[in-house]
Amino acid sequence: MTLGGIETMLVNIANSQSRYADVYVLVINDVYDQELMGMFCPQVNVVYNQRPAGSKSPLHLIRLNRHIMKIHPDVIHLHSPKSWRFLFHPFIRCPIFVTIHDVYNEQDPFKCIHKFKTVFAISESVRQSVLEHYGKESIVVENGISVDSFKKRSPDDRKVRKFVQVSRLEAHKKGQLLLMEALDLFHEAHPECEFTLDFIGDGSSRELLEKTASELKWHDKIRFLGSQSQKYLFENLCNYDLVIQPSLFEGFGLTIAEAMAAQVPVLIADNAGPMSIIESGKYGTFFKCGDVNDCARKIESFVLGNFPKETVEKAFEHVRKNYNVANTARAYFEHYSKAL
Hints:
Blueprint (H helix, E strand, L loop, with lengths): L4 H13 L6 E6 L4 H4 L7 E7 L6 H14 L4 E3 L17 E5 L17 E4 L2 H11 L4 E2 L20 E6 L4 H4 L1 H14 L5 E6 L5 H10 L6 E5 L3 H7 L5 E4 L8 H8 L4 E4 L2 H6 L7 E3 L4 H13 L4 H14 L2 H15 L1
Parallel strand pairs: 1-2, 3-4, 4-5, 5-6, 7-8, 7-10, 8-9, 10-11, 11-12
Helix pairs in contact: 1-13, 6-11, 9-12
């Protein structure tokens, strides 16, 4: 339970579901962010299993399953198929659901996916990926956010444009190097246009990205702000002029919906999941995935042009209607009921 998109979404869903059910969140590993855990409302029962990450000791598995048997749940919902192996299935009598949060990755396949009778996918692109690579049908329940919690952006004529990317620092997936290269091309073509870029998030590529920023001599342009809480995003996402999400592959893209909720324009790579959020350009701008030159052109178009105010406003209404976490929580409950 660290500061990631899945974990943050889980907090929001659990809080929403706790209004009409007894909700327990079992944290398997002894790795969690204290501030994130503090965002669970008092009605959510959080149980810490205190397993050291990577531990082979069976005692932690015994403790976990004792917790489950004590709770006697009507439904178990996992957010990773890999968690299946932690459960003592002969002693579990309730339906077990799982949500798949990303498209297929051959380096990290979901070997247990066929164990589940019901599989959820967070987007149509993830559903198609699961079907193509595993031959398993799944039900689309799109992710949701706390739309009205985000402060709204006020248009600003400031000279320096403020860009931001919110995601794990994993350049092979999230495209941070591509973004920096595109901004370098834009800077060469328009040295008079001033900008800053903030990376919100942390991960294995941070050292590489910091080195690249140093080589570009962009000490005054790029900031690495590390992992930040959802509350921080509620308060600060509105301070940016453009959210850029250049992922090389992506199942959904929760931060895109969050930007739209804060009424900040978005520029995304045209992966199917994120494109569904902006409805193929109706509510945001996109570039060809992996194409540095196209990304640079779209940044240029944004800076030199004018992103229509009405598009931002329509994007906000679109997110509030279609990506509210209350809808996500309710949809899960409807499917739970069918299985009971």
